[in-house]
Design a protein that fits this description.
Keywords: Cell membrane, Membrane, Transmembrane, Transmembrane helix, Transport. By secondary structure, the protein is an all-alpha fold. The protein has helices at 29-33, 36-60, 78-84, 89-118, 125-137, 140-150, 157-164, 178-206, 210-218, 223-251, 255-260, 272-279, 284-309, and strands at residues 63-65, 71-74.
Length: 315
């Protein structure tokens, strides 16, 4: 009697447990689109609130538009030529750069010191952090108007206090002259910029691992060496964010100057934003041309900073 090996069971198309395997389903429509459904709303929003206004702004700068808003045809590059021939144009650009660089530099230095202070433990630290938010909670316009009242020549608290203390012989018009108006406006700009920048740097400081500081102490590094070679390099990303955002905000700052001096006397305390606003009263096309110049200037300032700081360089 010969033994015959049992033949393998016939393939019935069923898997383990007698169940038929699930058919391979086609990918759904959303899956085939990949991430497009998720990023499409953001892309549309950027196109609506960023790209389209810029395109419309550039188009307007080449049109001849009446004060009533009626388009009277193309103006070519005449509006830009007229803008560059303005007697105050170069002075306004210089003061705009000075205003931006000074305010951002002072803001970053003071914010770095405050962030370092608030990163330490001391009695009342929680309340000090809350107090720092106050300039941020109030509107910029309200803060500027408050300082304007304080500096008023006839009823301002500063003149009254200094007269009572015998520090001045007569009331001073602090906002009537460029040499005194600019420092006060810069001070207000720094005041309202400190909260955000300080908290940005404070968040950066709190992300630095304590193990790194322990290792530096074991290696015999002093406080200054630790701060220079560990704290500052590891704080760099937060510092760059603070500088870039402040560059954009300070350059585009309008309420402070307009509320305190309205750019006067003349254009002596005007930045390019105030200059642009005043131009619209006489020539909308020229004002649009100034807006294009402003847009290019802030882009150039940010790119110069990023280039100098080598923001994408790996340490």
């Amino acid at each position: 009697m010969s033994l015959k090996a049992p033949s393998p069971p016939a393939d019935t198309g069923r898997g383990r447990g007698g169940r038929a395997p699930r058919p391979v389903s086609r990918r759904s429509g959303l899956a085939r689109l990949g991430p497009l459904p998720w990023i499409a709303p953001v892309v549309l929003l950027i196109l609506a609130v960023v790209v389209w206004p810029v395109v419309e702004l550039i188009r307007t700068s080449f049109l001849n538009i009446s004060i009533s808003g009626k388009v009277r045809g193309s103006a070519g590059t005449d509006k830009f030529k007229k803008l560059f021939e303005e007697s105050d144009f170069s002075a306004v650009l210089i003061w705009t750069v000075v205003w931006t660089v000074v305010v951002v530099s002072v803001t970053m230095l003071l914010s770095l010191a405050l962030a370092q202070l608030f990163n330490q433990k001391f009695p009342g630290r929680r309340y000090a952090r809350w107090a720092l938010i106050a300039p941020w909670a109030a509107s910029v316009l309200m803060t500027a108007i408050g300082f304007k009242w304080m500096l008023n020549q006839t009823a301002g608290v500063l003149n009254t206090l200094m007269l009572d203390l015998g520090l001045i012989d007569s009331s001073k018009d602090w906002l009537g002259k460029p040499e005194t108006a600019w420092p006060w406006m810069m001070g207000v700009a720094v005041f309202v910029s400190l909260p955000f920048t300080t908290y940005t740097l404070l968040a950066g400081l709190q992300t630095i691992p304590q193990d790194v500081y322990e290792a530096s102490r074991i290696d015999g590094a002093g406080p200054w060496q630790t701060y220079r070679h560990i704290t500052l390099p590891m704080l760099r990303p937060a510092f760059l964010v603070g500088v870039v955002i402040n560059l954009i905000n300070v350059f585009n700052s309008f309420p402070i100057i307009w509320a305190m001096t309205q750019g006067g006397p003349g254009y002596d305390t005007s930045t390019s934003m105030v200059f642009m606003y005043k131009l619209k009263e006489t020539d909308i096309g020229e004002s649009a041309a100034m807006s294009v110049v402003n847009f290019l200037m802030v882009v150039v300032l940010v790119l110069i900073f990023l280039k100098v700081s080598r923001w994408n360089e790996e340490d």
